[in-house]
Amino acid sequence: MVKSSAPLLRSLMRVGKKQQRSAARLLTALFAPPKPAPKARAQPKPASTSASTPAQKPRPVATSAPKPAPKPRPAATAASTPKPKPAPRAAPAALLKDAPAPGKWLTARYAGQSGQVLRPMSYWLYLPDGAPPLSGWPLIVMLHGCEQSATQFAQGTRMNQMAQKAGYAVLYPQQSLAAHPRRCWKWYDRATQQGGGDVPVIVGMIGQVLAAYGLDRSRVFICGMSAGAGMANIVALNHPELFAGLGLHSGPLYGAGHSTVGALGVMQHGNGARVDSAIAEVLERRPGFPSMPTILIQGDDDRVVRPVNQVHLRRQAMLLNDLPAATPVRVAHKAGGRSGLPHQLHDVYRGRKLMLRVAQIAQLQHAWSGGDARLSFNSAAGPDASKMLVDFFGKHRR
Protein backbone atom coordinates (compact mmCIF):
# COMPACT_ATOMS: atom_id res chain seq x y z
CA MET A 1 0.00 0.00 0.00
CA VAL A 2 2.86 2.37 0.83
CA LYS A 3 4.62 1.61 -2.44
CA SER A 4 1.49 2.15 -4.54
CA SER A 5 0.83 5.55 -3.00
CA ALA A 6 4.44 6.82 -3.14
CA PRO A 7 4.03 9.04 -6.26
CA LEU A 8 1.01 10.69 -4.66
CA LEU A 9 2.87 11.27 -1.42
CA ARG A 10 5.78 12.87 -3.33
CA SER A 11 3.27 15.12 -5.08
CA LEU A 12 1.94 16.36 -1.78
CA MET A 13 5.46 17.07 -0.50
CA ARG A 14 5.90 19.79 -3.15
CA VAL A 15 3.32 22.14 -1.61
CA GLY A 16 3.88 24.79 1.09
CA LYS A 17 4.49 24.01 4.74
CA LYS A 18 0.97 24.85 5.91
CA GLN A 19 -0.55 22.78 3.13
CA GLN A 20 1.88 19.93 3.92
CA ARG A 21 0.60 19.83 7.47
CA SER A 22 -3.01 19.73 6.27
CA ALA A 23 -2.23 17.00 3.75
CA ALA A 24 -0.24 15.00 6.30
CA ARG A 25 -3.17 15.03 8.72
CA LEU A 26 -5.54 13.78 6.03
CA LEU A 27 -3.13 11.11 4.85
CA THR A 28 -2.70 9.92 8.42
CA ALA A 29 -6.47 9.89 8.78
CA LEU A 30 -6.91 7.73 5.70
CA PHE A 31 -4.20 5.19 6.46
CA ALA A 32 -4.49 4.96 10.27
CA PRO A 33 -6.15 1.77 11.57
CA PRO A 34 -9.43 2.17 13.48
CA LYS A 35 -9.26 2.39 17.25
CA PRO A 36 -11.94 2.50 19.94
CA ALA A 37 -13.14 5.87 21.16
CA PRO A 38 -11.64 7.08 24.48
CA LYS A 39 -13.71 6.39 27.58
CA ALA A 40 -13.82 9.96 28.79
CA ARG A 41 -14.40 13.11 26.75
CA ALA A 42 -14.02 16.73 27.59
CA GLN A 43 -17.17 17.85 25.78
CA PRO A 44 -20.61 17.61 27.43
CA LYS A 45 -22.10 14.10 27.28
CA PRO A 46 -25.05 14.06 24.87
CA ALA A 47 -28.45 12.88 26.01
CA SER A 48 -28.94 9.36 24.60
CA THR A 49 -31.89 7.92 22.72
CA SER A 50 -32.31 4.22 22.01
CA ALA A 51 -34.75 1.80 20.49
CA SER A 52 -36.09 0.90 23.93
CA THR A 53 -36.86 4.50 24.95
CA PRO A 54 -38.86 7.22 23.19
CA ALA A 55 -36.88 9.72 21.14
CA GLN A 56 -35.70 12.68 23.20
CA LYS A 57 -35.29 16.24 22.07
CA PRO A 58 -31.72 17.54 22.15
CA ARG A 59 -30.86 19.17 25.44
CA PRO A 60 -29.18 22.58 25.75
CA VAL A 61 -25.42 22.48 26.23
CA ALA A 62 -24.73 23.22 29.90
CA THR A 63 -23.29 26.58 30.89
CA SER A 64 -22.07 27.83 34.25
CA ALA A 65 -24.62 29.27 36.66
CA PRO A 66 -24.78 33.09 36.79
CA LYS A 67 -23.06 34.77 39.71
CA PRO A 68 -25.29 36.51 42.30
CA ALA A 69 -25.60 40.26 41.99
CA PRO A 70 -23.20 42.17 44.30
CA LYS A 71 -24.59 43.95 47.37
CA PRO A 72 -25.18 47.68 46.90
CA ARG A 73 -22.40 49.92 48.22
CA PRO A 74 -22.98 53.17 50.12
CA ALA A 75 -22.81 56.35 48.10
CA ALA A 76 -19.26 57.65 47.66
CA THR A 77 -18.22 60.99 49.11
CA ALA A 78 -16.79 63.74 46.95
CA ALA A 79 -13.31 63.07 48.26
CA SER A 80 -13.50 59.37 47.38
CA THR A 81 -15.24 59.72 44.06
CA PRO A 82 -12.98 58.19 41.38
CA LYS A 83 -12.25 59.98 38.16
CA PRO A 84 -14.64 59.06 35.37
CA LYS A 85 -13.34 56.35 33.09
CA PRO A 86 -13.43 56.80 29.33
CA ALA A 87 -16.30 55.08 27.52
CA PRO A 88 -15.40 51.56 26.33
CA ARG A 89 -14.49 51.21 22.71
CA ALA A 90 -16.72 49.28 20.36
CA ALA A 91 -15.75 45.62 19.88
CA PRO A 92 -13.70 44.98 16.73
CA ALA A 93 -15.72 43.73 13.76
CA ALA A 94 -13.81 40.41 13.83
CA LEU A 95 -14.95 39.74 17.41
CA LEU A 96 -18.55 40.60 16.60
CA LYS A 97 -18.39 38.27 13.59
CA ASP A 98 -17.29 35.39 15.83
CA ALA A 99 -19.72 36.10 18.67
CA PRO A 100 -21.99 33.10 19.41
CA ALA A 101 -25.31 33.20 17.60
CA PRO A 102 -28.18 34.03 19.99
CA GLY A 103 -30.32 30.98 19.25
CA LYS A 104 -30.44 27.59 20.98
CA TRP A 105 -27.40 25.28 20.78
CA LEU A 106 -28.54 21.73 21.59
CA THR A 107 -26.91 18.32 21.65
CA ALA A 108 -28.24 14.75 21.60
CA ARG A 109 -27.42 11.21 20.50
CA TYR A 110 -29.27 9.22 17.86
CA ALA A 111 -29.41 5.44 18.12
CA GLY A 112 -32.18 4.49 15.70
CA GLN A 113 -35.91 3.96 15.94
CA SER A 114 -37.74 0.92 17.31
CA GLY A 115 -36.58 -2.24 15.54
CA GLN A 116 -33.43 -0.68 14.09
CA VAL A 117 -29.91 -1.68 15.06
CA LEU A 118 -27.70 1.27 14.17
CA ARG A 119 -24.43 2.62 15.47
CA PRO A 120 -25.22 5.54 17.82
CA MET A 121 -24.12 8.97 16.62
CA SER A 122 -23.93 12.30 18.45
CA TYR A 123 -25.22 15.47 16.87
CA TRP A 124 -25.57 19.18 17.57
CA LEU A 125 -28.52 21.33 16.53
CA TYR A 126 -28.79 25.09 16.17
CA LEU A 127 -32.24 26.73 16.30
CA PRO A 128 -32.47 30.46 15.48
CA ASP A 129 -33.63 32.97 18.04
CA GLY A 130 -37.19 34.19 17.58
CA ALA A 131 -40.48 32.71 16.40
CA PRO A 132 -40.31 30.26 13.48
CA PRO A 133 -42.38 30.81 10.33
CA LEU A 134 -45.73 29.00 10.07
CA SER A 135 -44.15 26.31 7.89
CA GLY A 136 -41.25 25.85 10.33
CA TRP A 137 -37.57 26.66 9.99
CA PRO A 138 -35.81 25.22 6.92
CA LEU A 139 -32.92 22.88 7.82
CA ILE A 140 -29.29 22.74 6.69
CA VAL A 141 -27.35 19.54 7.46
CA MET A 142 -23.59 20.15 7.81
CA LEU A 143 -21.05 17.28 7.62
CA HIS A 144 -17.54 18.06 8.89
CA GLY A 145 -14.27 16.89 7.35
CA CYS A 146 -11.49 14.68 8.71
CA GLU A 147 -9.74 15.95 11.83
CA GLN A 148 -12.80 18.04 12.74
CA SER A 149 -15.61 17.76 15.26
CA ALA A 150 -19.15 19.04 14.81
CA THR A 151 -18.54 21.98 17.14
CA GLN A 152 -15.27 22.92 15.42
CA PHE A 153 -17.05 22.80 12.07
CA ALA A 154 -19.79 25.10 13.37
CA GLN A 155 -17.21 27.56 14.69
CA GLY A 156 -14.96 27.46 11.63
CA THR A 157 -17.74 27.95 9.08
CA ARG A 158 -19.74 30.43 11.21
CA MET A 159 -22.84 28.75 9.79
CA ASN A 160 -24.85 29.35 12.98
CA GLN A 161 -24.36 33.12 12.67
CA MET A 162 -25.40 32.95 9.02
CA ALA A 163 -28.41 30.76 9.88
CA GLN A 164 -29.54 33.26 12.50
CA LYS A 165 -29.57 36.04 9.90
CA ALA A 166 -31.29 33.98 7.20
CA GLY A 167 -33.65 31.97 9.42
CA TYR A 168 -32.40 28.36 9.21
CA ALA A 169 -31.97 25.53 11.67
CA VAL A 170 -28.63 23.72 11.33
CA LEU A 171 -27.88 20.07 12.13
CA TYR A 172 -24.30 18.86 12.70
CA PRO A 173 -23.90 15.05 12.81
CA GLN A 174 -20.54 13.99 14.25
CA GLN A 175 -18.57 10.97 13.09
CA SER A 176 -17.35 8.94 16.08
CA LEU A 177 -13.78 8.03 16.93
CA ALA A 178 -14.91 4.40 17.15
CA ALA A 179 -15.82 4.49 13.43
CA HIS A 180 -12.64 6.28 12.39
CA PRO A 181 -9.70 7.50 14.51
CA ARG A 182 -9.70 10.88 12.74
CA ARG A 183 -13.49 11.25 12.41
CA CYS A 184 -13.41 10.73 8.63
CA TRP A 185 -16.63 9.80 6.89
CA LYS A 186 -16.05 6.70 4.73
CA TRP A 187 -17.18 8.23 1.45
CA TYR A 188 -14.91 5.84 -0.47
CA ASP A 189 -16.56 2.69 0.93
CA ARG A 190 -18.58 0.85 -1.71
CA ALA A 191 -21.37 -0.20 0.68
CA THR A 192 -21.70 3.37 1.96
CA GLN A 193 -21.91 4.73 -1.59
CA GLN A 194 -24.81 2.35 -2.19
CA GLY A 195 -26.74 3.61 0.85
CA GLY A 196 -25.29 1.58 3.75
CA GLY A 197 -22.79 2.47 6.45
CA ASP A 198 -23.60 5.78 8.13
CA VAL A 199 -26.25 6.78 5.57
CA PRO A 200 -29.29 5.36 7.45
CA VAL A 201 -28.02 6.88 10.72
CA ILE A 202 -27.80 10.37 9.23
CA VAL A 203 -31.16 10.04 7.46
CA GLY A 204 -32.84 8.76 10.65
CA MET A 205 -31.32 11.60 12.64
CA ILE A 206 -32.70 14.14 10.16
CA GLY A 207 -36.16 12.59 10.39
CA GLN A 208 -36.08 12.73 14.20
CA VAL A 209 -35.12 16.42 14.24
CA LEU A 210 -37.72 17.35 11.59
CA ALA A 211 -40.47 15.71 13.63
CA ALA A 212 -39.33 17.00 17.04
CA TYR A 213 -39.16 20.64 16.01
CA GLY A 214 -41.74 20.93 13.24
CA LEU A 215 -39.17 22.00 10.65
CA ASP A 216 -40.00 22.65 7.00
CA ARG A 217 -39.71 19.32 5.18
CA SER A 218 -39.83 21.01 1.77
CA ARG A 219 -36.61 22.94 2.52
CA VAL A 220 -34.01 20.47 3.79
CA PHE A 221 -30.48 20.89 2.43
CA ILE A 222 -27.26 18.97 2.98
CA CYS A 223 -23.66 20.04 2.50
CA GLY A 224 -20.15 19.25 3.70
CA MET A 225 -16.43 19.89 3.48
CA SER A 226 -13.87 17.43 2.06
CA ALA A 227 -14.78 13.94 3.37
CA GLY A 228 -18.00 15.51 4.67
CA ALA A 229 -18.77 16.71 1.15
CA GLY A 230 -18.24 13.19 -0.16
CA MET A 231 -20.63 11.86 2.48
CA ALA A 232 -23.23 14.58 1.90
CA ASN A 233 -23.26 13.69 -1.79
CA ILE A 234 -23.83 10.02 -0.98
CA VAL A 235 -26.72 10.75 1.39
CA ALA A 236 -28.41 13.02 -1.15
CA LEU A 237 -28.00 10.57 -4.03
CA ASN A 238 -29.51 7.72 -1.99
CA HIS A 239 -32.38 9.81 -0.55
CA PRO A 240 -33.09 12.54 -3.12
CA GLU A 241 -36.72 12.93 -2.04
CA LEU A 242 -35.53 14.29 1.31
CA PHE A 243 -33.39 17.17 0.04
CA ALA A 244 -34.12 20.35 -1.90
CA GLY A 245 -30.47 21.11 -2.57
CA LEU A 246 -26.88 19.92 -2.16
CA GLY A 247 -23.65 21.81 -1.42
CA LEU A 248 -20.13 20.38 -1.77
CA HIS A 249 -17.02 22.27 -0.65
CA SER A 250 -13.68 20.73 -1.72
CA GLY A 251 -15.27 17.32 -2.18
CA PRO A 252 -14.24 14.16 -4.09
CA LEU A 253 -16.23 12.81 -7.00
CA TYR A 254 -18.90 10.20 -6.28
CA GLY A 255 -18.65 6.46 -6.93
CA ALA A 256 -14.91 5.76 -6.82
CA GLY A 257 -12.15 4.95 -4.32
CA HIS A 258 -13.35 1.75 -2.61
CA SER A 259 -10.18 1.54 -0.46
CA THR A 260 -7.88 3.90 1.42
CA VAL A 261 -5.32 3.84 -1.41
CA GLY A 262 -8.12 4.28 -3.95
CA ALA A 263 -9.48 7.22 -1.95
CA LEU A 264 -6.10 8.94 -2.05
CA GLY A 265 -5.97 8.41 -5.81
CA VAL A 266 -9.40 10.02 -6.22
CA MET A 267 -8.39 12.98 -4.07
CA GLN A 268 -5.36 13.60 -6.27
CA HIS A 269 -6.59 12.64 -9.75
CA GLY A 270 -10.34 12.10 -9.68
CA ASN A 271 -11.45 9.08 -11.71
CA GLY A 272 -12.51 9.80 -15.25
CA ALA A 273 -13.58 6.20 -15.85
CA ARG A 274 -16.22 6.39 -13.09
CA VAL A 275 -17.73 9.83 -13.77
CA ASP A 276 -20.58 8.68 -16.04
CA SER A 277 -20.96 5.07 -14.93
CA ALA A 278 -21.37 5.93 -11.24
CA ILE A 279 -24.33 8.22 -12.01
CA ALA A 280 -25.80 5.63 -14.39
CA GLU A 281 -25.85 3.19 -11.47
CA VAL A 282 -27.66 5.72 -9.29
CA LEU A 283 -30.32 6.33 -11.91
CA GLU A 284 -30.74 2.58 -12.39
CA ARG A 285 -31.30 2.08 -8.64
CA ARG A 286 -33.63 5.08 -8.43
CA PRO A 287 -35.88 5.32 -11.52
CA GLY A 288 -37.56 8.70 -11.75
CA PHE A 289 -34.76 10.39 -9.83
CA PRO A 290 -35.89 13.96 -8.98
CA SER A 291 -33.72 16.94 -9.76
CA MET A 292 -30.95 17.85 -7.27
CA PRO A 293 -29.88 21.53 -7.41
CA THR A 294 -26.18 21.59 -6.54
CA ILE A 295 -23.51 24.14 -5.66
CA LEU A 296 -19.83 23.15 -5.93
CA ILE A 297 -17.15 25.25 -4.17
CA GLN A 298 -13.46 24.58 -4.78
CA GLY A 299 -10.11 26.27 -4.26
CA ASP A 300 -7.85 26.38 -7.31
CA ASP A 301 -4.75 25.77 -5.15
CA ASP A 302 -6.16 22.78 -3.26
CA ARG A 303 -3.50 20.05 -3.21
CA VAL A 304 -5.40 17.67 -0.91
CA VAL A 305 -8.61 17.28 -2.95
CA ARG A 306 -7.50 18.64 -6.28
CA PRO A 307 -9.73 20.75 -8.58
CA VAL A 308 -10.10 17.89 -11.08
CA ASN A 309 -12.67 16.52 -8.65
CA GLN A 310 -14.83 19.61 -9.15
CA VAL A 311 -14.63 19.09 -12.91
CA HIS A 312 -15.88 15.51 -12.47
CA LEU A 313 -18.57 16.52 -9.95
CA ARG A 314 -19.81 19.14 -12.39
CA ARG A 315 -20.20 16.50 -15.08
CA GLN A 316 -22.00 14.20 -12.62
CA ALA A 317 -24.41 16.99 -11.58
CA MET A 318 -25.21 17.70 -15.24
CA LEU A 319 -25.99 14.02 -15.85
CA LEU A 320 -28.03 13.69 -12.67
CA ASN A 321 -30.19 16.70 -13.54
CA ASP A 322 -30.54 15.70 -17.21
CA LEU A 323 -28.79 18.85 -18.40
CA PRO A 324 -27.29 18.48 -21.89
CA ALA A 325 -23.60 19.23 -22.22
CA ALA A 326 -24.49 22.09 -24.58
CA THR A 327 -26.64 23.86 -21.95
CA PRO A 328 -25.60 27.54 -21.83
CA VAL A 329 -23.45 28.54 -18.85
CA ARG A 330 -23.57 32.03 -17.35
CA VAL A 331 -20.13 33.05 -16.10
CA ALA A 332 -19.57 35.81 -13.56
CA HIS A 333 -16.10 37.04 -12.63
CA LYS A 334 -15.83 38.41 -9.09
CA ALA A 335 -12.96 40.63 -7.99
CA GLY A 336 -11.26 39.84 -4.70
CA GLY A 337 -12.57 42.90 -2.85
CA ARG A 338 -12.44 42.49 0.89
CA SER A 339 -12.05 38.74 0.55
CA GLY A 340 -8.71 39.17 -1.18
CA LEU A 341 -9.32 36.24 -3.55
CA PRO A 342 -10.96 36.60 -6.98
CA HIS A 343 -13.39 33.87 -8.02
CA GLN A 344 -15.68 32.79 -10.83
CA LEU A 345 -19.27 31.58 -10.73
CA HIS A 346 -20.52 29.28 -13.49
CA ASP A 347 -24.33 28.99 -13.39
CA VAL A 348 -26.45 26.49 -15.32
CA TYR A 349 -30.22 27.04 -15.54
CA ARG A 350 -33.17 24.92 -16.54
CA GLY A 351 -35.58 27.56 -17.76
CA ARG A 352 -35.53 30.13 -14.95
CA LYS A 353 -34.41 27.71 -12.25
CA LEU A 354 -30.76 27.69 -11.20
CA MET A 355 -29.77 24.02 -11.18
CA LEU A 356 -25.98 24.14 -10.83
CA ARG A 357 -23.52 26.72 -9.53
CA VAL A 358 -19.78 26.07 -9.77
CA ALA A 359 -17.59 28.41 -7.71
CA GLN A 360 -13.86 28.44 -8.50
CA ILE A 361 -11.81 30.42 -5.97
CA ALA A 362 -8.31 31.54 -6.97
CA GLN A 363 -5.40 30.80 -4.58
CA LEU A 364 -7.61 29.00 -2.04
CA GLN A 365 -6.08 25.83 -0.61
CA HIS A 366 -7.87 22.98 1.21
CA ALA A 367 -9.90 25.18 3.53
CA TRP A 368 -13.42 26.54 4.07
CA SER A 369 -13.57 29.82 2.16
CA GLY A 370 -14.15 32.86 4.36
CA GLY A 371 -13.99 30.79 7.55
CA ASP A 372 -12.39 31.28 10.96
CA ALA A 373 -8.66 30.91 10.25
CA ARG A 374 -7.91 30.18 13.92
CA LEU A 375 -9.10 26.63 13.22
CA SER A 376 -7.52 24.15 10.82
CA PHE A 377 -9.00 23.80 7.34
CA ASN A 378 -10.48 27.32 7.40
CA SER A 379 -9.29 30.35 5.43
CA ALA A 380 -10.18 33.93 6.28
CA ALA A 381 -9.48 34.84 2.64
CA GLY A 382 -12.02 34.06 -0.03
CA PRO A 383 -15.76 34.69 -0.36
CA ASP A 384 -17.94 33.56 2.54
CA ALA A 385 -18.81 29.96 1.62
CA SER A 386 -21.56 29.77 4.26
CA LYS A 387 -23.28 32.79 2.72
CA MET A 388 -22.86 31.31 -0.76
CA LEU A 389 -24.58 28.12 0.39
CA VAL A 390 -27.45 29.90 2.15
CA ASP A 391 -28.00 32.20 -0.85
CA PHE A 392 -28.13 29.20 -3.20
CA PHE A 393 -30.39 27.13 -0.93
CA GLY A 394 -32.77 30.06 -0.60
CA LYS A 395 -33.72 29.64 -4.27
CA HIS A 396 -34.97 26.06 -3.88
CA ARG A 397 -37.51 23.84 -2.18
CA ARG A 398 -38.53 20.20 -2.66
List the helices and strands and how they pair.
Blueprint: H1 6-13, H2 17-31, E1 59-60, H3 93-97, E2 104-110, E3 121-127, E4 139-143, H4 150-157, H5 159-166, E5 169-174, H6 190-193, H7 199-213, E6 220-225, H8 227-238, E7 245-249, H9 260-269, H10 275-285, E8 294-299, H11 308-320, E9 329-334, E10 343-350, E11 353-361, E12 368-369, E13 378-379, H12 385-393
Parallel strand pairs: 4-5, 4-6, 6-7, 7-8, 8-11, 12-13
Antiparallel strand pairs: 1-2, 2-3, 3-5, 9-10, 10-11
Summarize the structure in short.
With 398 residues, the protein is an alpha/beta fold. The protein is built from twelve helices and 13 strands.
Structure, explained:
The protein starts with 5 loop residues before the first helix and ends in a 5-residue tail after the last helix. The strands form two sheets. The chain has an eleven-stranded mixed sheet, sandwiched between helices. The protein has a two-stranded parallel sheet with strand order 12-13. The chain has helices at residues 6-13, 17-31, 93-97, 150-157, 159-166, 190-193, 199-213, 227-238, 260-269, 275-285, 308-320, 385-393, and strands at residues 59-60, 104-110, 121-127, 139-143, 169-174, 220-225, 245-249, 294-299, 329-334, 343-350, 353-361, 368-369, 378-379. Mean pLDDT is 83; it is low at 1-16, 33-56 and 62-82. It is α/β, with parallel strands linked by helices and 398 residues long. Helix 8 (227-238) links the parallel strand 6 (220-225) and strand 7 (245-249). The longest helix is centred in the N-terminal third of the chain and has 15 residues, at 17-31. It has twelve helices and 13 strands.
